[in-house]
Amino acid sequence: MRDVERVVAGGATIRFVIGEYGAGKTFFLNLVRLIALERKCITLHADLAPDRRLHASAGQARGLYAEAVRNMATRTRPNGGALPSVVERFVTDCVNEASNNARPVERVVDDRLAHLQEYIGGYDYATVLKAYWCGSEEGDENLKDAALRWLRGEYSTKTEARQALGVRNIIGDNDVYDALKLLAAFVRLAGYAGLFIVFDEMVNLYKLQSSQARNQNFEQILRILNDVLQGNVGGIGFAFGGTPEFLMDTRRGLYSYAALQSRLAENSFARDGLVDLSGPIVRLQNLTPEDLLILLAKIRAIFALGDPSNYLVPDDALPMFMQHCNRHVGEAYFRTPRNTIKAFVQFLAVLEQNPETKWQNLIGDMEVALDAEAAMDLELGDEGGGSNDDLSSIRL
Predict the structure, then answer these.
(1) What's the rounded Cα separation, in Å, for the pair 276 and 283?
(2) Is 139 helix (H, G, I), strand (E, B) or coil?
(3) Could you give the 3-state DSSP secondary structure of residue 4?
(4) CA neighbor of 201 nearest in space, from 67, 12, 3, 330
(5) Domain boundaries, given as residue ranges, for the chain
(6) β strands within 118-276, DSSP E
(7) What is the mean pLDDT of residues 13-23?
(8) Is there a contact between 310 and 304 (Cβ–Cβ < 8 Å)?
């Protein structure tokens, strides 16, 4: 909450939300996005993937930017696709200001966009926004669509952008972070409180086989981190979601990059149950067995629509279900509860649709598996990093 308030006040923030697979990172990040929307911020969100990352040379970084901007959300457009309405709001505000002050609309647009030209790539950004206004004035939908395509990073060649908009540059793989800073400045010009960006599945950087590719992406993270901590940016917040391996692995994770390891090192005094949330790292706390018991009881209540008389299983079934999970999975059943919850929902679904079935018999036949993603990462870590990694195993 304080991070969102800092963005609203014109500051900047960065957080790395760290948790095991199934620990609730995505839920937590979505909750942060909703809080930002309530505070009149604009949010972007995207999941990293093999074809979407922070730095690349074959369009993957531009793909991440395009996906994030397509998912742009406002309080009135929480499901994404809010870019046209944001630009329209800017144009409408310019028209209203020109009307109230008896000034030409073009002069008002130029004055407002002059601030953007202080940023890297700001001249072309301002030119594209002005082109959108021209298209709006002239009723040229093709020009408006071309401007939105450019702002979304959908042009792959400079020639195509020059023909459509008269600009010399596009948002490419090397311009993603600069484009995000420009977007943060623009949304404040459009009357919003700030920009909050959520990138999940950062573990995909940890999975990159090439150490050079990983380091190039880590350099982008370092650049963002330095700008935020040194106060070089404002009105923008970042939240990254990743696993402990993504952060702490000294061969493939962020800690393999010395500059990041020193900046992200956690408070050595925060131990024995003490926490420090002032740093950039936020570790999601594990559920206790008691927490999971309460959660299962609430899921049971949801299935019964809040009516205790419609509970599909009695209170005794909940600890028995947990004991069954403990025997099959171990303590991971409450540390990373995603599969446990999924199994419990499936358990209740079968009972609901087959009322003659006894829950005692069903529990004995049920299987709860370890998280497949976590198992895959363990295998990846055991491989030693691939042929392009900096270190290799030598047997004498």
Answers:
(1) 10
(2) coil
(3) helix
(4) 67
(5) 2-264, 289-374
(6) 195-200, 236-242
(7) 89
(8) yes
DSSP track, 303-361: HTTT-GGG-SS-TTHHHHHHHHHHHHHTTHHHHSTHHHHHHHHHHHHHHHH-TTS-HHH
For the cut 60, the answer to whether the pLDDT of residue 370 exceeds it is no
Lowest mean pLDDT, pick from 16-20, 378-382, 385-389:
385-389
For residue 16, the surrounding DSSP H or E stretch is strand 12-18
**Number of other CB atoms surrounding residue 118 within 10 Å:** 9
Separation CA 55–CA 65 (nearest Å): 11
Tokens of 225: 């981190």
Using one digit for the tens of pLDDT, what is the confidence trace for 269-314?
877 777 778 889 998 887 788 888 999 999 999 999 999 999 999 9
**Which tokens in the block code for residue 137?**
């004035």
Segment holding 18, helix H or strand E: strand 12-18
DSSP state of 79: T
In the numeric block, which tokens belong to residue 181?
Answer: 């800073």
Helix, strand, coil in percent for the chain, rounding step 5: 55, 10, 35
Inter-residue contact 129 to 113 (CB < 8 Å): yes
Q: Which residue has the tokens 């069954």?
A: 324
* Total residue count of the chain as it appears in this document: 396
Q: What is the DSSP string of 180-203?
A: HHHHHHHHHHTT-S-EEEEEE-TH
Stated pTM of the model: 0.84
For the cut 70, the answer to whether the pLDDT of residue 4 exceeds it is: yes
Place of tokens 């970042």: 238
